[in-house]
Amino acid sequence: MTTLDVDTVKTFVTIADLKSFTRAAETLGTTQGAISVKLKRLESQLGHRLIERTPRRVRLSAEGAAFLAPAQELLGAHDRAVAALSPVRPRRFSLGIATHVGGAEVPILLARLHAHDPALTIEVRLEDSRDLLDAFDRGEIDAAIIRREDDRRDGEMLATDHYGWFATPDFVHRAGEPLRLAASSPSCGVLNIATRALAAASIPWTETFLGCGSFAVADAVAAGLATSVFSRRLAPAGTIEVSGRLGLPALPPSEIMLLSALSDAKSRAVLKTIVGAFREHHRMPANRAAEEIHTVTEVVGS
């Protein structure tokens, strides 16, 4: 009877989840060489090739696809067995992600965190940067990914974001009339940037739509009710950048920051996973990002 090594099974599941030897090695805190050795050991034990690897992609073989679900169940049973006799309470990690920051990388980020520690309970909070900053300062969340507010200099920079004015192609703004704006809340930092830019350009504006959350604002803009400012990564479907057509001022770039006061080794490993996933997604080509999002959706939905 074949006895499986939990570590090699975890290596296989991590590769299968991330579709990458490089990212699996980063997640598990080891090298690609060690990952390959463990996978070959498992394949030798089972007598089947589980992963098919080419220079362009990593995918499951037919045997690997059949083995994946039982392997995940094995790891889950192992974690539950260890936790049952452990005096340590299950770990929880609360992460705030600003609505003007989080986009397509969020499901990828969550998948990476789960692969890093399947027993970790992840609590995600989506709010404006200012609200998350206040929650972080009150100790309500462990970490926050936000747009840099004011002159606050703490935290680790993850990426630079660029903003624009977006509206539907048929949105009309008549000269002399106030520009119709949509915003999620009066305290929204992105709205403050927009209104300061309009004031400097002597362009009058009016708040046409005040919604609860950025999704409501996106719906209002997509419906043609108003214009608003969005990260160029997160503009609503069916909208276009209209600053040139409407004579609107350029907007300054914004830094995306990770805030955390956690210092223990396990938490630092979680934060390293967050930083790696976020930075990698922001520098990857759009077509590769779309492929990875599709892959993560398949894994999460399976």
From TrEMBL:
KW Transcription (keyword) present: yes
Record Gene3D superfamilies: Periplasmic binding protein-like II, Winged helix-like DNA-binding domain superfamily/Winged helix DNA-binding domain
Domain called HTH lysR-type: residue spans: 4-61
UniProtKB keywords: DNA-binding, Transcription, Transcription regulation
Keyword GTP-binding: no
Entries under InterPro entries matching the protein: LTTR, LysR_HTH_N, LysR_subst-bd, WH-like_DNA-bd_sf, WH_DNA-bd_sf
Function per UniProt: NodD regulates the expression of the nodABCFE genes which encode other nodulation proteins. NodD is also a negative regulator of its own expression. Binds flavonoids as inducers.
Entry's family note: Belongs to the LysR transcriptional regulatory family.
Protein name: LysR family transcriptional regulator
Organism: Bradyrhizobium brasilense
